[in-house]
Design a protein that fits this description.
Elements (H helix, E strand, L loop, with lengths): L8 H27 L8 H53 L12
Helix pairs in contact: 1-2
């Protein structure tokens, strides 16, 4: 059975907004961690463990933030490319006097 490729621009836009919100949240977290101090929590070993955790978490949050930002950009580029293809296809079909219902699907 043939399958159609459908792209819902509205859903992609909502997903991109969600990703952007995640990036902002991670930036806020990184900012909060940068200002946090870990000294004086207890023993020297506990303070050192907290400091190590803070450094690891900061690095991990930075990496996740960067990758999430990159993903958002890629999704936007793909959405724009699909919209361009859709517009070009509609223009070509209008020129040929056809509608989307006239298009023959190619089985996979």
């Amino acid at each position: 059975m043939a399958e159609k490729l459908r792209v819902d621009a509205v859903e992609l836009e909502q997903f991109m907004k969600l990703l952007d919100g995640s990036v902002r949240s991670l930036k806020g977290l990184r900012s909060a961690l940068a200002d946090a101090t870990v000294g004086g929590l207890g023993t020297d070993d506990l303070d050192k463990a907290c400091e190590d955790f803070q450094e690891d978490w900061k690095y991990g949050a930075e990496q996740i933030g960067e990758q999430t930002e990159d993903l958002s950009k890629l999704i936007e580029q793909n959405k724009n490319a699909f919209m361009e293809v859709e517009a070009a296809l509609a223009k070509a079909m209008n020129k040929a006097g056809k509608t989307k219902d006239d298009v023959v699907e190619i089985p996979r």
